[in-house]
Structure formats: C-alpha cells, structure tokens
Write a structure and sequence with these properties.
Radius of gyration: 27 Å
CATH topology of the largest domain: 2-enoyl-CoA Hydratase, Chain A, domain 1
CATH class of the largest domain: Alpha Beta
Number of domains: 3
CATH architecture of the largest domain: Alpha-Beta Complex
Number of strands: 17
C-alpha cells in the first residue's frame, strides 16, 4: 500500500466514523428534535477546538451475532476541547449506534477521558443519550458502568462534572449523572429512571407514562434530580457553557474574575422600601438578588424545586458568588426537607470549588407537621447546618427580615463560622414570633383574664413588648452576632467590599479521612 493509499484509508475511516450508525439513523435522530452526538460536541465547544480520542475503537463482543455488526467509535464520542478558551474533557453518547447502549470498550473510552481530566485538572462534560447497558455483553457492560461510577466519585469535588440528559437515561446509567455536580435535562426529549413503565406495571401494577415517570419536568419539580429543565437542547447547551463561567477548572484554583462595568457603589433606593410593613406579607427575594448583583444576571439552580429557597450563581464586581436565599413568596420561606437538601447540596458545591457564599435570610423556622417529622426533617435540616459549618470559603450573611429559632442557626449564622453578618433594620432575630412567644410566656395569665377586652389589651401589650426587644437586629448586634446594621440601599457595595476583604481568607478543617455528614 502506497503512502497516498494509507492516507486515503485514514480519511475514509474518519468519514465512516463520523457517520455513526449511518445516514438513516442520523436523520431519524433529527426527526425526534434531537441533535446528533457530534453536533452536540461542536455546539458546546469553541469552534475547531475538539480533539477526538479513540475514533477507531470497536466492540469485542462475539455473542448473539453482534460480531457481524460493528461501528467505528462503538457508540460514544470522546475527547477534549475548550470552552471560552478553557480546557474541558467531554463524552457524547451516540444513540444511532446500538441505541447508545454501553459496552466494555464504550466504557473504557469514557474512563480514559475522565482519567485524563483528573490528571490535568479540567472539567468533565457528559452528554447522555443511551438505552442503557448493552445486553449482549452481560456482566462486562455492568462492570463498565461501575468503572465510570468510581471515576465520578474520585472526581467529585476535584473537577466540575456536568451531565446533560438529551435522550434516554435508564437503569444503572442514571447513577453517573446523579454523582455529578450539575444535571441538565431537555424537556420532552429526555427521561431518567431506574426502572421503566413496563417494569413498574409488572411489579406494582402502576400504569404510568415514560414522561410522568422520569421526564424533565418530574425531575426538575418533584425529585430534584435535575438542576435545570431546558426547553430544548439549544438551551441545555447554553446552560452547560454558562455553568462553567462560575466554576474554576478544579478545586485548587479560584473562580475566574471577569471585568465588571456595573458600578460597585451603585445605590439602590428601592431596597429601602422593599420589605413590607406587615411582617407576614410576602415579597420576592429574587427582586433583591437581581438588584444587587452585577448586571442583573443570576443563574438559578433548581428553579422549579423547593421554591421556598433560592440558590444559584451571580457575580459581584466580576467575582463569582453562590447565593442562598429564603423565599418569602413561597411557603413564607420556611425550611422543609426539600429546601434543606437543595441548599445543602449547593453550599457544598460552592465550598468544593472555592466559590464564596452569600446568604440572604428571611426564615420563620422549619415546617411543622408529621409529614416532615416522619420524612426526617431533623436529618435533612442537619445537612444544611453541616454544610454551612463545614464550608471554609468566604461567607457573608445578610438578615433581611425574620430569622427565628433553629432556622436562624442553620442559615449561616455567626456560630457556623460565617465571616461577616449584616442585617437590615427590618431584621427580627428571635426564638419565635411575638404571638407564639406570648402564648408560651404568658399563656396562663392570658387564660386567667375573663374580660375579652382586657385580655386582648394585655396580649397586645406583651406582643408589643416582645417586638420592641426582638423585632429588630440590635440585640444580636449588641452581642456581636451581627457585625453591622446596614442601610438596604447600600447592600451591593457592602457585599462587594466584604468579599474583597475576605479574598485572602485561609481556613482549614481538622485532619480527617472524611466527615460523616448526616445522610
């Protein structure tokens, strides 16, 4: 074979590999409203930056006639490229080849790029579109999944891991995305479940559709598995790139600061009047967030899940910051099981990758009732407490209004090593609200007053007395639990100056194998 023939063979093989399962299957992928595996990579990465690995790999199975059907690449495309000039490693499952099912060699390809990502300290992006394990390969396929899971675990907290679900993701396949930092699902074209509708029907008798069992809406609103529900793959791809703007390459680096044209000393007079006079009236905490952050940009995680708490990334003077905020507009901002899990997971993500945390507090307490207690609100609330107490990144806390009971402690209090704690003049820091406190402290006296008018007068006097003492931030400030009471309109500047001051903070936890977070 001449040199020209050798080169032609290479070119022909590359062209064959790029066709995946063939033109008809590629067209069928498009007919479902889905991009192909290669198109997804091209859209995610900077133009011309993709370097592909293992294009010529084939499966090794010789059973069930599979030796007669082989495709170059074996159903997954792997390699590395750049996003905004930063190196990332990526794998994209190709549904046109054996339905994207995972084989021994397919798994080895994924493991190779994950290993290299850890070696160089670069993020890992996984695009999932697979029917699951390749049945013909039996235990070899299962072993391949476990190899990937182990690498997900080793990479956790070392390099950012992002999973995009742009098609089927079922059975053992779901556990790899579940182990990663960010999960994005495309609406109507993706699903995740451990066992499908047919198995559910056989075992439990439940009759349910694929969408209702494991669609993007279900996981974005009910289970909390998906951080983002994208309207389509285009939005999903944008969210992949956007998420990486706020995260460093790895746990040894700092988030990248960008140029900021939004004045750091911008005054926002509307904040002075944003807290309602009625202490029980709701307001939208996101109105505050959008007002104080750079250029009104806020990337909200879990937007449709546990809406009583808000989490996400913004920037202050170009520096990425994670925000956790109680939402008075939903369930009065109370902490419950789902809100505690959601916020704890986000706090640990920020701490793992050196992203400072801003906490905006307006919390009346934990949600009462047998459902919460039976569901383990004690354990789940402890997760959030643990996450804040363990975090060593710069932490700034601002109490906007209510901060009652155990929820006060949990929401990044000074005692959980929050570095700077501010309060607005509207802050109320106490064990409970005035009405509940009077019922406990003066209940016997109240019940002894027979005259209705006198009873109401007495109760009102005691409530006013309690509010005078605790419905303000100054008692906490007297004890040093609040570092300063600030004027709301100056909040942006005070936050930026606080984080600038804390930028050189060094704090470590006691040496240990690992903590035993209450799971």
């Amino acid at each position: 074979m001449s040199r020209q023939q050798e080169i032609k063979k290479l070119i022909d093989l590359r062209a064959e590999a790029r066709l995946g399962g063939g033109l008809k299957r590629l067209e069928k992928q498009h007919s479902k409203g889905k991009y192909t595996a290669r198109e997804r990579i091209e859209m995610i990465l900077d133009e011309g930056s993709f370097e592909e690995f293992d294009m010529f790999v084939k499966h090794r199975c010789r059973d069930f006639g599979l030796e007669k059907e082989q495709y170059l690449g074996d159903g997954v495309i792997t390699g590395h490229g750049t996003i905004d000039g930063r190196v990332v490693y990526i794998f994209s499952q190709d549904f046109t080849v054996f339905g994207g099912s995972l084989s021994e060699t397919y798994a080895k390809k994924i493991c190779k790029v994950m290993d290299q990502a850890l070696l160089v300290g670069a993020p890992i992006i996984g695009i999932n579109d697979s029917g699951g394990a390749r049945i013909q390969e039996g235990v070899m396929s299962l072993a391949g999944y476990a190899d990937i899971f182990q690498r997900n675990i080793m990479a956790s907290g070392v390099v950012p891991q992002i999973s995009a679900i742009f098609g089927p993701c079922a059975g053992g396949a779901v556990y790899s995305p579940a182990l990663t930092d960010v999960v994005i699902m495309s609406d109507k074209t993706s699903y995740m479940f451990v066992t499908g509708p047919k198995v559910a029907k056989t075992v439990t008798g439940e009759d349910i559709t694929t969408e209702d069992l494991g669609g993007a809406t279900v996981h974005a609103t009910k289970s909390g598995v998906a951080h983002f529900r994208a309207d389509d793959e285009d939005e999903g791809i944008m969210l992949i790139r956007k998420s990486l703007e706020y995260l460093p390459q790895n746990n040894l680096e700092e988030p990248i600061q960008t140029e900021c044209t939004d004045p750091i000393d911008r005054i926002n007079d509307e904040l002075n009047d944003i807290i309602p006079e009625n202490p029980n009236a709701p307001y939208d905490v996101k109105d505050i967030i959008y007002t104080i952050v750079d250029d009104e940009e806020f990337l909200e995680y879990h937007r449709h899940y546990a809406k009583n708490i808000v989490v996400g990334f913004s920037k202050f003077n170009g520096m990425p910051v994670g925000i956790v905020a109680n939402q008075p507009n939903y369930l009065a901002g109370v902490l419950d099981i789902n809100a505690s899990k959601k916020a704890a997971r986000f706090v640990r993500l920020c701490d793992a990758f050196n992203v400072p945390i801003l906490t905006l507090v307006d919390v009346p307490g934990f949600l009462p009732g047998s459902n919460q207690e039976y569901g383990g609100i004690i354990i789940h609330g402890a997760k959030l407490l643990f996450a804040y107490g363990e975090a060593t990144v710069p932490k700034v806390t601002i109490t906007l209004r209510k901060s009652y009971g155990g929820a006060h402690d949990v929401m990044s209090s000074k005692q959980l090593r929050s570095d700077i704690n501010y309060a607005w003049p509207s802050a109320e820091i106490a064990v409970m609200g005035a009405q509940g406190a009077v019922e406990i402290l003066e209940g016997r006296k109240v019940r002894s007053i027979e005259n209705d008018e006198e009873r109401e007068k007495f109760v009102q006097e005691k409530e006013d007395e309690y509010k005078e003492k605790f419905a303000n931030p100054y008692v906490a400030a007297q004890h040093g639990f609040i570092d300063d009471v600030i004027e709301p309109r100056n909040t942006r500047f005070r936050i930026i100056r606080a984080f600038r001051t804390l930028s050189t903070k060094k704090q470590t936890n006691p040496p240990k194998k690992h903590s035993n977070i209450p799971l």
